[in-house]
Design goal:
Layout: E1 2-8, H1 16-26, E2 32-38, H2 44-51, E3 55-60, E4 74-75, H3 77-82, E5 87-93, E6 96-102, H4 104-112, E7 120-124, H5 128-139, E8 143-148, E9 155-156, H6 162-167, E10 170-173, E11 199-202, H7 211-218, E12 222-224, H8 227-241
Helix pairs in contact: 4-5, 4-8
Length: 248
């Protein structure tokens, strides 16, 4: 039995297990299973791999997308450039088991916006997902500005005003704010400056419409949740695990 799974701290909200189990059923894949691995420290990934010789691949969710990197043997070029990993290939080599990190978040986000054009984006958040989104938008030649509560970002939330909001045509929420069960929260941006010329993209997919997207829709902005991105990054991970794709 080939085994795959998701590692993170709290995984009850995750859609990944349901997604892959449905995929296995629909495609008649009977030699695979997908499990949830709740861990408290990224180093525990090494123990998982050591304890299970049938573990072939892992997805990584927050807060470990950056923290897992020291425990990998190598990374793809994009993952190294982004500085975050959401997919791990467990590779058996003559030298022993190797853990190879990839970032399919960037691919999933990029592909979900195929056909769209933007000039400037505000990226809300400064974690691994935000880094993947920034990488994808740079591929699209979109000027990006990161916003968070931390001084490490380009701007903090209290710096946002009408001019800054108006200058961006895309605003991407890369934080977990609004995710089930905390559905009443949202990024603290001045929504009163959102207009019909904005596109609000929320990487959160549960619930289908977050407060962030609801506020945008009320002001006639285009809105999109992260479900399509989830599907696309999951399919890219599956290809990596099966040797059908060697670079993302």
């Amino acid at each position: 039995m080939r085994r795959f799974g998701l590692v993170g701290k709290k995984l009850s909200h995750s859609f990944s297990k349901l997604y892959f189990e449905e995929k296995f059923r629909n495609e008649g894949i009977t030699d695979c299973e997908y499990l949830l691995y709740e861990i408290s420290d990224p180093s525990e990934i090494l123990k998982l791999v050591e304890a299970d010789g049938e573990l072939c691949g892992l997805n990584v969710t927050n807060p470990f997308k950056k923290a897992v990197i020291p425990y990998l043997d190598r990374m793809s070029g994009d993952a190294a450039e982004i500085g975050a990993v959401n997919t791990i290939l467990v590779e058996n080599t003559p030298a022993g088991v190797q853990l190879v990190g990839y970032n399919t978040d960037s691919y999933g986000f990029y592909d979900s916006l195929k056909g769209c054009t933007f000039r400037k984006a505000l990226i809300l958040g400064c974690g691994g997902a935000a880094a993947a989104v920034r990488h994808a938008l740079r591929r699209m030649s979109v000027e990006t500005t990161t916003v968070s509560r931390n001084q490490g970002s380009d701007l903090t939330y209290d710096m946002l005003d009408r001019e800054i909001i108006s200058s961006a045509d895309l605003i991407v929420n890369c934080t977990p704010l609004g995710m089930f069960p905390d559905t009443g929260s949202c990024p603290p941006i001045p929504y009163e400056f959102i207009t019909e010329r904005h596109f609000l993209y929320d990487l959160v997919y549960n619930p289908e419409e977050t407060v962030f997207l609801h506020e945008g829709r009320l002001r006639h902005a285009a809105v999109k949740n992260g479900l399509e991105m989830l599907h696309k990054q999951a399919e890219a991970a599956w290809k990596i695990w099966n040797g059908e794709q060697t670079a993302v």
